[in-house]
Structures are given as C-alpha cells and as structure tokens.
Amino acid sequence: MTVKGERALREELERLKRVERPRITQAIAEAREHGDLKENAEYHAAREQQSFAEGRIKELEHKLSHAQVIDVATIPPSGKVIFGTTVTLIDIDNDRTVQYRIVGEDEADAKANLISVNSPIARALVAKAEGDEVVVKAPGGDVVYEIDAVEHL
Q: Digits of tens for pLDDT over the chain (153 positions)?
C-alpha cells in the first residue's frame, strides 16, 4: 500500500479505538440501565455496533501488520508505470485524457481516479513506459490508450 493509504488505515484504527469503542461501551451501559435486555432494542443495536467495530479493528490491525508500504516518491523516476505512480493516458479513439493513480486494494476509489493494482487497467499499464500504447479489455470492447506521462507523486 502507499504511504497515504497506510496513514488513512492507521487514522481509522485510532478513531475506532479511541472514539467509537468508548462511545459504544457507554451506549451499552446506558441500555443496560433500562432493564430487560431481551426486548431492549438500544442494547441490541449497541451490541451489533460493538461487534462491527471490533471486527473492523481486528481487520485493520491484521492488514497493517502484514502491509508492505511503498513510498513511490523515494523511487527515482524511470518513465515506467509502477505501483504508486500517477499515469496520464490519452484515449486514442477520442483524444480524451484521463489520469489514474495505481494504489493498493484498500485505497482504490474509482471516483477519485485511484485504481487498484489488480484492476484490468492497472495490470495492462504496469511495466509499460511513457509513449507506449496499451490495450485495455473493457466490457464495451477494447480501449487503446497512449501513456502520456508517468509521475512519482
């Protein structure tokens, strides 16, 4: 994952541990004060939130402990597409320009033009260089792009 992706996961983990966990514990305690737990919707909702939060905490801790963090800014630019680079592409058919950053699975967000390294576009781009033409297999047919620029941001 990228440095930015690691930071985002660590911030989420910290928020879950320091803010959400105590808030949920308090909600459970307050719900218990209302009496019969069998028919107490607030209690059951709080327990469900607790289960979700604890599961997400374990998931984040596991991902972070096994993550390989790559800071692309420390890698000398070579003009080749690698994990973490920002790639500017030109659609050969309509001359439209699009820019993607190749990131890890957890960071991917198509709306923000952050694509997973495992996506079809990224797989077609990795190891290619500026000026290369790349064919991407899309549901609507093949799309041909020219790699205009590769940046290490």
A: 999 999 999 999 999 999 999 999 999 999 888 877 777 888 999 999 999 999 999 999 999 999 999 999 899 988 899 999 999 999 998 999 999 999 999 899 989 999 999 999 999 999 999 999 999 988 888 999 999 999 988
Conformational region of residue 36, where left means phi above 0, alpha means psi within -120 to 50, and beta covers everything else? beta
Q: How far apart are CA 70 and CA 1, in angstroms?
A: 6
- For the entire predicted model, the pTM comes to 0.78
Q: State which CATH number among 3.30.450.20, 3.20.20.70, 3.40.190.10, 3.10.50.30 fits the domain covering 72-151.
A: 3.10.50.30
CATH number of this structure's domain 3-66, picked from the four choices 1.25.10.10, 1.10.10.10, 3.40.50.510, 1.10.287.180:
1.10.287.180
Instruction: Write the secondary structure of 34-46 as one string of H (helix), E (strand) and C (coil).
Output: CCCCCCCHHHHHH
Query: Which stretch of DSSP H or E encloses residue 29?
Result: helix 21-32
Whole-number Å distance between alpha carbons of 81 and 66:
24
3-state secondary structure of 60: helix
